Amino acid sequence: MKSVFKLILNTIPRPLLIRLSYVARPIIALSLKGNKFTDPIDGKSFKSMMPYGYETQRNNVLSPSTLSLERHRLLWLYLNEQTDFFTAHKKVLHFAPEQAFYKLFRNQKNLDYTTTDLFSPLADVKADICNLPFDDNQYDVILCNHVLEHIPDDTKAMQELYRVLKPGGMAILQIPQDLKRATTFADDSITDQKERAKIFGQYDHVRIYGRDYFDKLRSIGFTVIEEDYTNKIAPELVEKYCLAKGEIIPVCFK
């Protein structure tokens, strides 16, 4: 039974698996119940997490209960342990809201919470990140995670994020990043979707960000903290929470 279940997980395309698991996650979560790994977002524990990936599959990364990935769990820990996000009144703008966070943040009474995206059905405001319909200096917190790698003119998008953030406000702008690269790589001449997926991780990614990402954010005006938060967490908890060791959280201030 276990081998059949693993075979099913490994052969279903990852995007379809996420959609199916969102519907069937109570059953999947029950079948994987255990005590080896824990999702810190809801505190539930499992004998294994689910696999996830496009070109390269990662094992033990997708939570059966919240559908969180490594980056979501790391961000939740950072917000919960290092900020007043869950206690102080905040006006929050959340781009492309993730299923792992949407209901949790929506139900936080201290948050004046607005979601936005061009296509997501979870978006309160349908908007182009390069031309936002919001006034200057509006938001205490902006969450924009794994969005900028999809945007051809990421400079304009960063400028818009900076514009609508309040002075003193915080923006967390996570991206898939290759820290071994000094400079960001892009090549629009590659048009085959399979080839783009192989090179960029997903066919609809327009670049691979390198370490220069942080300096680009600084050039827009942000003060950037390159938060290596997994190095501040006990190693046994990094493993238990299925985090990606060494992942950097770009914490940006205006």
UniProtKB/TrEMBL annotation:
Entry coiled-coil feature ranges: none
Keyword Transferase: yes
InterPro entries: Methyltransf_11, SAM-dependent_MTases_sf
Top-level division of the source organism's lineage: Bacteria
Full protein name: Methyltransferase domain-containing protein
UniProt-listed Pfam families: Methyltransf_11 (PF08241)
Keywords: Methyltransferase, Transferase
Residue span, Methyltransferase type domain: 124-172
Gene Ontology BP annotations: methylation
NAD is among the record's keywords: no
GO molecular function: S-adenosylmethionine-dependent methyltransferase activity
CDD domains according to UniProt: AdoMet_MTases
